[in-house]
Amino acid sequence: MKYLYLLxxxxxxxxxxxxxxxxLRACDIRATRYVKNPMPPEKMREMxxxxxAPHCIGANVTVPHKQTILSHLDELSELARExxxxxxxxxxxxxxxxxxxxxxxxxxxxxxxxINPAGARVSILGAGGAAAxxxxxxxxxxxxxxxxxxxxxxxxxxxxxxxxxKFPYLGLAINDWDALAQSQLIINxxxxxxxxxxxxxxxxxxxxxxxxxIVFDLVYNPPATKFLRDAKQNGARVIxxxxxxxxxxxxxxxxxxxxxxxxxxxxTAATAALNEIMQTSSHKG
Length: 285
What we know:
Helices cover 38% and strands 20% of the residues.
């Protein structure tokens, strides 16, 4: 049996195993399983040993490892190097190759809704791996201006420096919270609002979402975060994180297997798994 791992800590009720295993079955890849492998940051050595084991053929990487794992891999794709974060690892000729499918997943979630970010003013809350992927994707899609908003100024500056090297003519602002109200696209790329912190939002207190805005929360559990509920209440158009999860997972699947990802199967499995988690949580409550 071969294995694909989901590496992160904590992993909680991730729906990626349900989604990826459904895709493996649909493509008749019977000898491979996708499993959670929770690893805290201090176990990086054990994580790399697990990846190098003969039975491992690849992995997804999530928080808090998307950036810290970079220096432990043998090769990086150009995209992963430029974004500065890895969410997918492929085993090629015994080497661990880091790639990034978050940027693709993010843009695809916009494309299927016929949203074109070209020329738009965009605010991104967060400066970690997900924020970096979203910012890079938006810069590639010719966003007019990107405002990076993060509690730690140094991380925003670091991300802005990376973007400037690749996109020197991109309009960039850092921690300009006043610009949030004039943004056409507002993105939560933090983990604030993720279950069990469902009553929290990364937006400033008393912030009123502009009615003209599209508000995208990369968190998928719960499907309707406080960030999205507040935005919708004020008339903004909202997008949850499930579609991005599906499309980044589909791209990872294609990199691992060389086969076209069964998107409908993956969406059905992901939705069912998320619904089950939500029902279980409501019964406990």
